[in-house]
Write a structure and sequence with these properties.
By secondary structure, this protein is α/β, with parallel strands linked by helices. It is about 30% helix and about 20% strand. Residues about 235-255 and about 505-510 have low confidence and may be disordered. Bound molecules: S-adenosyl-L-homocysteine.
């Protein structure tokens, strides 16, 4: 009797998306029982001409087991071929249980699941820093009911990227439930039909109209729905490897960058320990702490500063002066304290959102990291996420664009180190972005794709002459350009290069 049955993943469809192990097993098999509806017949070309092929769609479990038993009795090699990876909705457990009862051994060869073929088709990474670090693979109930806890609302609440199998015929209800569970209507979504097959189709759209688009495309099965902001960033080129971007830019990518120097203020022993932990992971950070805390730590005889962070103490009553002196010297100020303390201390120093540094409040446990001031231009949202990554806490972000997964225009400018020439318009333009007003955007195309792909209310224009909407965002317009009256145009300027910088300094000095 032959040794074991092999369960193998046949991949998503494309015949060259098989593992070498699966190809070998196909070539060796005497009997292949395959899931006919989803396994590409091309895959079966790897079988020998005398191999028996049985489509499992036509037989039930008992018949599958009988076929296996009979083949093994004749010393034949049996391969049970499943679509994608057998561990996802492969119904292999029931077969393995029966084989256990019969004391028949088996082995599993993994395959490329359709969910990864779909990601590849979308040129998407399911896990991106600060957007999502988890992927939920789920389905809606069909003949198989869903366990009580595995509701759409529960999964929606995790914020993870969601992938729905076996649900293409049910998208209207599914997307409605996701929105009812709090997913914004604008959440990026995509459906991939027959990923990796020659007739693969991709339908993209925000959550509120993907179902209609998919229905219009006539797709009802063999498709996956993917939901989450990670999809939004899949349209354009990855700037990470774009030769036009300097290394400096690379280190600024999204939230892993906040390159400025930070000052941390601790008000208690526990706060001091947490400040040292955070400072240890930030370049050139300095920690400021009241003398009495430092003395108490020294008296306790613990060396709490293994990373040799620069620590400066201040006497009671000196905090206000210290903060004023530090205010412009540091790009980020992190209070490891209660929020009230921070708010009172910084109040006299606040100027404008284009000038204020990033201010965060972090509780002593590092659980909540509040982006308090300078969310976009100051970089506080980015710094909060970075600190949350250090402490394992949650970044508390309240700026409206961010909570709707939109990149505010001043945030985009800050990420690229551009300046906003007319900051008085920031508020109106971000509000227009949030309210889906039509906005003409003059931006290098790859950056438009990077930040605003799929935002239908934003129109990419190639020249200032094309601007007609009431709102516009204009990167590097010609000198002395002014928008026509009635158009609110936010003007973004690239950083001065060294020569321009010198000229400007000279002009300033001369005047
Ligand atoms: N084990 C398979 C999933 C089987 S369940 C895997 O790992 O991919 C069948 C469901 O998988 C379909 O309803 C569909 O949602 C998805 N599916 C399978 N192949 C697909 C493909 N090529 N493209 C898109 N979805 C696919």
């Amino acid at each position: 009797m032959s040794e074991k049955v092999i369960f193998a993943g046949a991949g998503p469809g494309a015949p060259d998306l098989l593992t070498l192990r699966c190809v070998k097993a196909l070539a060796a098999a005497d009997l292949v029982i395959y899931a006919g509806s989803l396994v590409n017949p091309e895959v079966l070309r790897h079988c020998r001409p005398d191999c028996r092929l049985v489509d499992s769609a036509r037989i039930d479990l008992d018949e599958v087991i009988d076929l296996i038993k009979a083949a093994l009795a004749k010393d034949e090699k049996v391969l049970r071929l499943h679509t994608g990876d057998p561990a996802m909705y492969g119904a292999i457990s029931e077969q393995m249980n029966r084989l256990d009862e019969l004391k028949i051994d088996y082995e599993i060869i993994p395959g490329v699941s359709s969910v990864f073929a779909a990601a590849a088709a979308l040129k998407c990474e399911f896990t991106m820093p600060d957007l999502s670090q988890s992927l939920v693979l789920t389905r809606t109930a069909g003949r198989t009911p869903m366990p009580d806890q595995e509701t759409i609302a529960n999964f929606a609440a995790t914020g993870a990227t969601l992938a729905f199998f076996l649900s293409a015929g049910n998208l209207e209800k599914l997307t409605r439930e996701l929105m009812a569970a709090g997913k914004p209507e604008t959440t990026p979504a995509a459906v991939v039909y027959r990923a990796s097959w020659p007739n693969q189709k991709i339908v993209r759209g925000p959550l509120n109209d993907i179902a209609a688009k998919v229905s219009a495309a006539g797709i009802r099965r063999q498709a996956l729905l993917l939901v989450g902001p990670v999809l939004e960033r899949s349209g354009g080129l990855s700037l990470l490897y774009d030769k036009h971007f300097s290394h400096g830019y690379r280190s600024q990518r999204r939230d892993e960058f906040f390159t400025g120097k930070c000052a941390l203020y601790a008000m208690s022993k526990a706060g001091y320990a947490k400040a040292l932990e955070i400072a240890g992971a930030l370049p050139q950070a300095e920690v400021f702490v009241p003398e009495r805390i430092l003395n108490a730590v020294a008296a306790a005889g613990v060396t709490e500063n293994p990373a040799q962070i620069a620590v400066k103490s201040f006497a009671a009553g000196e905090m206000a002066g210290l903060l004023a002196a530090n205010w412009q010297k540091f790009s980020g100020h992190i209070f490891v304290s209660a929020t009230g303390i921070a708010v009172r201390k910084i109040a006299p120093l606040l100027q404008h959102k284009t000038l204020d540094p990033a201010v965060l409040v972090c509780d002593e446990n590092g659980t909540q990291i509040i982006s308090l001031i300078g969310g976009h231009i100051g970089g506080a949202n980015r710094l909060a996420r970075k600190v949350a990554g250090i402490t394992g806490g949650t970044a508390v972000i309240t700026t409206a664009t961010d909570i709707h997964n939109l990149v505010a225009f001043d945030e985009m400018a800050a990420r690229n180190r551009w300046t906003v020439k007319n900051p008085a318009l920031i508020k109106s333009l971000n509000a227009a972005l949030l309210e889906n007003e039509t906005i003409d955007v003059l931006l290098p195309e790859h950056l438009f794709q990077e930040y605003y792909a799929g935002k239908k209310n934003l129109r990419l224009v190639a020249d200032v002459a094309e601007i007609t909407a009431g709102f516009a965002v204009v990167f590097a317009p010609p000198q002395n350009w002014r928008p026509e009256s009635g158009i609110k145009a936010l003007i973004l300027q690239p950083p001065l290069d060294a020569e321009q910088c010198e000229n400007q300094c000279e002009n300033r000095c001369a005047s």
